[in-house]
Structure formats: C-alpha cells, structure tokens
Fold this protein.
Amino acid sequence: MVNEEKLYDVLIVGAGLSGIGTAYWLQTKCPDKDFVILESRQSMGGTWDLFRYPGIRSDSDMFTFGYRFKPWYNPNSLSDGPSILQYLKETAQENGIDKKIRFNHRVLHANWSSNELCWMIHTQTEDGEKQLRSRFLYMCSGYYNYKEAYRPVFPGEENFKGKIILPQFWPDDLHYDGKKVIIVGSGATAVTLVPTMAATAGHVTMLQRSPTYMMPMPNRNGFFIWLQKWLPHKLAYKIARWKNLLLGMLFYRLTRWFPGKMKGLLIKHTSKQLGKDYDVMTHFNPRYYPWDQRLCILPDGDLFQTIREGKATVVTDEISHFTNDGIQLKSGKTIEADIVVLATGLKIQIFGGTKLSVDEKEIDSKDAMIYKGMMVGGVPNLAIAFGYINASWTLKTDLTANYVCKLLRFMDKRGYGVVMPRLQQGVIPEPFMNFQSGYVQRANHVLPKQGSKRPWRMYQNYLMDMVTTRFGRIDDGVLHFTYKTRK
C-alpha cells in the first residue's frame, strides 16, 4: 500500500451534489484550507451521473434544489437529469473544483488516530491501495447504496419470458417501443417512468401495493420568468428561490397541522384531474397522512394526463407470482407484460459504505447519535452531509457546509486542532428519520439516532436551522475542543 505523505486539512468523500457544494463553500470561506475530494466512480455528479432511466428528473423544486451561489437559469422547476448533471459539472469547472477531485478512489476505511491527531484514510484505486491523511473528514457520499438497490424477489420470476429491469441499473440497449410494460412501484421513480415510457410503449401499467399522494405542479416557473423582465437574473433567482422555499415550508406545516383536511384536498384535486368516474379512492387514497411519506410531484400533471389518454393504467394489488407472459396478482387478475420494471426503492447505506473507526474501534452507525444533523457524537473531526426529507436536499447540506467552515475558522482562531460533540446525559435516542417510507423502515438497523432535545434533535426546518447555524454559538458546551499540540 502506498502512503501519501501530505497531510490535508479537509478530505471530502464524494463528488456529487453535496461534495461539490461543500467544496465551493470551503474554498470560499476557508481559502487557506488544503482539501481534496475522493470520488469512487470515474465521473462526478453522484446520483445524476448514476441514474440513466427514461425521464430521470428532480423530484424537488430546482430553485431550492440548486445552489444558492449559482443561479438556476432554466425556468423549469423540475428539471431532467442530464441538465442537472451539466449544472453540477459547470459549477465544478467554473470554480476549479474539478481539479480537486480524484476519481476512482473508493474509501474503504477511515480511522481517527489520537496519536497523530488526524484521519488515516485507506482507499482503493486503479493503481492499488493508497493511504491518505487529513485533519478533518467530511462525508458527502449520500445515503444510499450505488451498487445495490432494494430488490424483492417474487415467486416464478424464472418463468417470465420477458425482461426484468431495475431503474438504478438501466440498460442502454433496452427497447420498449410498442411493448407492454409493468412498472412495480408508486414512488418518484415510478411516476417519472410511467409518462415517459407510455409515450412510445404499447401500454404501461403502474402496479402498486398501496397508493402515494400525487401533487401536480406547473413545470415552468411563471413568477421567475416575470421577475426576469424587471430584475437582474441573480436577484430574480434569489427572490424565486425564497418564494418557493417559504411556500414549501408553509405547505408542509399545513399538512402537519391539518392532516385530515390536507389529505381531503389532495384527493379532491386528484379526482378533478382524473374525472368523476375514476376510482380515486382505490388508487390515490394512501393509508397514511401527507408527508408521513414523501409526496410525488407531477410536472404539469403528466401522470394524470397519461392516464386520461388511456396510455397507462394504475392497478392497486399485490403480486402473487410471475407467469410466462406477465404477473398474476393476489386478486386472481393477470397482467401481461414484455418488460417488468421493479421501481421498488433504494437501499440505504450510511457513510457511503466506508468503515469508520476511532483508534481502530469501529463506529456502528446504528449506535451513533448525530449532533445538529451533521456531526457524530464521540467522534473527532468528522462531518456528514445529510439533507432534508421534507424539502430540497441541498438546503440542509448548504447550511452544514457553512457551519463547518465557521467551525474551522473558530478552531484556527483559538488554536484548536480537534473538535468532538460529547454525548450528554438525559438525551433520549430517537429515530434519525421520522418517516414511514419503506426504504427508511427497512434501514432502521443501520440508521443512526437523533436526540430528544437540542442540539441533537433534527427539526427539518430550514429557517430554524439557518438561524441556529449562522448565529448560534460554536462553543455551546457540547462541542469539546483540544489544542493542536498536546500541553
């Protein structure tokens, strides 16, 4: 194994949305810090480079999903994957961040050494294993497994004569023109695939075990277009961003304050979209309240339009088994198919699959408690980028990056070399993500914990987090600091 002698100030893991944004703030607010980004894949972009299925797009509003330091020029609120990937690449190139990335560097193990007061990062590269050192480690590797999706196995799959596809690993040579397609699932991936594939497929059936809330949204931001007529682009973007952010927060709060009424409004609106004769109560009446799971946003109501046109059908039932030419349901009904797409969800993976340890004692993610949604209790000089589940991911990771920059400047000013959140007595562990979605429930055995009170509690509230991270005290009695050299 090759040991690199250089000691970095900060090592960022992951060159996706979070990693590129973090690097921008680090070099802007801590220009004296020497940092490097390690990316396990051969290209930047993370999710937006990995996923290639038809119609791939954001499921969050781009005016809040995009970076606040780089205006989003496209008036489309829900943009396609290739446009988002190009936006990320432009951001990296314009700011010289691309030169800081080392591709094909998969971080296998990172160990904090109390003797060396740094992280020893063990990586796998094309040229073999390599070890790097860094004073601070910043995990921007997302929260799901890139190499493995959630893939339930159904009886009789071996008898099916058609193709079974996972969206996460979409084959480049798949042709579905004129084909009968079943898409299993009802989340963001499924509702993106249905209208896109239905444009040329013979017919598409969205087969769901249970319904999801659907909310149509105009895809062109008319307010932003109007603002551009009168204001400079950056100012128009900033105003549109804040408008969308506040409206999103208001809608979320209303669903939590008045869950029954908001449920009724969403179902009523769906019924209006699909017509009075459509069985909305079977296919679009979830068992839970809005935002107990994430809502699906439909640009210009494309899924509803596809259903109205007869190009797609929604079936609410459970799979009994696969047959030679399709799927038989537990109700006894059979659906014919040439292609079955299993849009059944993601598999959560903490720390990007990296084994973390302190003085060779492994950190078990399920036992970890997260400080302010960004640092791990009892672990020195470590930050993680984890976004909101009820708003755009980038909003939270942006705040986290700015807080870490503030923390690093504070430490330099005081001569500190090590920072660590100390676990407190009386703080009760609670689920890290208070969410009923299947991919979250399946990951309870690996997800860390949040605490019952500040600063261990996560509020999923941008304004509250913004005030706390920008104006709150760094030295809050929970963070424990150590000088660079031992006294």
